[in-house]
């Protein structure tokens, strides 16, 4: 191979790499956020006793959410549920039903772009969305902060952890949390400079270390999406109680509404 040909090959290779990295920069959020954007039915048709509520974000979006109270009694506490990066609130109905049966009120939040909501998800956008949910509970429904528990599932763990820095709850439940988004992205794209490319950071481990809130971390022992070691790092940084479900993968039903998970939430309810 002549020197001229070699130079041309190297130039082409560099151009290809630059184009690939530019595409990843531009379209990365389509890889991170996997919403089910379809409109949802009325809350009461899928979750008996639930109501449809609207949340107004600081940047002017109106988001749909579902709110349910326990039947026939005042709730012992209210749980703000922030889901993971996929699906929508309909997939969290079994969890809400179990928590309501346990005497808790529940708000199932859908982020912008999820469940028929307007907008496109981003780290900054989800922070505004969860604050709209917090305002609804504390201002519209008059829930005292001392009776509010945050529940974050996977990516939602980052969302509620960041909220807790500004508005500390009575308790914080983190299910399958990652150390930060770059750390979990590197598991899937080990040959890419993900820390340089990522626009959204979600630094869970760094943020939980600054909290002084009763915290429980629930982790599946065979999680194939978020390495269990990262969830254990988060638990250590938060000085949290760790509940590990042996053999459970990231999306197994036991990590959606299993007894260990429900029990972990109940353990955070103020006496």
Automatic annotation (TrEMBL):
The keyword Phosphoprotein does not apply. It comes from the Bacteria. SUPFAM superfamilies: alpha/beta-Hydrolases (SSF53474). The keyword Transmembrane applies. The chain crosses the membrane at residues 6-27. GO terms for molecular function: hydrolase activity. Keywords: Hydrolase, Membrane, Transmembrane, Transmembrane helix. Residues 74-183 form the Serine aminopeptidase S33 domain. This is Alpha/beta hydrolase. It comes from Amycolatopsis plumensis.
């Amino acid at each position: 191979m002549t020197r001229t040909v070699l130079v041309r090959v190297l130039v082409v290779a560099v151009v290809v790499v630059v184009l690939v990295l530019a595409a990843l920069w531009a379209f990365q959020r389509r890889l991170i956020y996997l919403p089910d954007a379809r409109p949802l039915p009325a809350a009461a048709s899928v979750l008996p006793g639930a109501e449809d509520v609207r949340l107004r974000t600081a940047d002017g979006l109106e988001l749909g959410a579902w709110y349910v109270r326990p039947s026939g009694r005042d709730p012992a506490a209210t749980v703000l549920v922030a889901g993971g990066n996929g699906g929508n609130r309909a997939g969290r109905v079994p969890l809400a039903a179990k928590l309501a049966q346990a005497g808790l009120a529940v708000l199932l939040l859908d982020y912008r772009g999820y469940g028929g909501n307007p907008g496109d998800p981003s780290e900054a956008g989800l922070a505004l969305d969860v604050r709209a949910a917090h305002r609804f509970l504390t201002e519209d429904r008059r829930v005292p902060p001392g009776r509010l528990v945050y529940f974050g599932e996977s990516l939602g763990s980052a969302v509620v952890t960041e909220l807790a820095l500004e508005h500390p709850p009575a308790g914080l439940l983190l299910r399958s949390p990652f150390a930060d988004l770059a750390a979990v992205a590197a598991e899937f794209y080990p040959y890419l400079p993900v820390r340089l490319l990522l626009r959204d950071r979600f630094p869970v481990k760094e943020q939980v270390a600054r909290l002084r809130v009763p915290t429980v971390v629930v982790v599946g022992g065979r999680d194939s999406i978020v390495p269990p070691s990262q969830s254990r790092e988060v638990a250590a940084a938060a000085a949290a109680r760790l509940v590990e479900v042996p053999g459970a993968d990231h999306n197994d039903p036991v990590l959606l509404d299993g007894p260990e998970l429900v029990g972990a939430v109940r353990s955070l309810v103020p006496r």
